[in-house]
Amino acid sequence: MKLYLFDFDGTLTEKDSMIEFLIFVNDNKFMFFFRTLLAIPSLFILSIISFKKFKSQFLKIHLNKFSEEDLQIKSKIYSDRIIKNLYPEASDYLNSIIGEEKYIVTASLDIWMEEISKKLNCKLICTQSIFRNKKFISIKENCKGIIKKERIIKEINLEKFDEILTFGNSKN
Questions:
Q1: What is the overall mean pLDDT for the chain?
Q2: Nearest to 108 by CA among 12, 28, 43, 41
Q3: Percent of the chain with pLDDT over 90
Q4: Cα separation, 160 vs 1, whole angstroms
Q5: Distance (Å, rounded) from C-alpha 148 to C-alpha 142?
Q6: How far is CA 10 from CA 13, 28, 37, 86, 157, in A?
Q7: Rounded distance, CA 12 to CA 119, Å?
């Protein structure tokens, strides 16, 4: 049995799904850039301290006005949009894999990636969101680099596969 592991951003699609999702939920690029601009001083300080804190705060700036339910509804609409932007060869290749296990393993958030992975018939390992009182407050560990590797080992029984194929656009 074969195991297929796909990165998402830059591998299956040329778009950065996080930026595209944040623009989508903010209704337009202007609001996305305006919110980001207002947060630059704090984001700069956090980026020096920790990428996780930076990413959490950046996402919170853009997502805290939405309920968890609103984000789920928006992610369903967004997933149709981004799937249309998959590289055609990647889409064809994913569709050609039948009877094998395939995963998307990405630093992108579960908020939008759960719906995308369902529509692509893939299992998912990704950065997980933290909600409190149905509002986004932070992320758990960013599923990138060594964390990505650790999550794969923890969540998939690699022993049951004869062959493991990985697809990505960077060493991560």
A1: 91
A2: 12
A3: 73
A4: 7
A5: 8
A6: 5, 22, 25, 10, 26
A7: 14
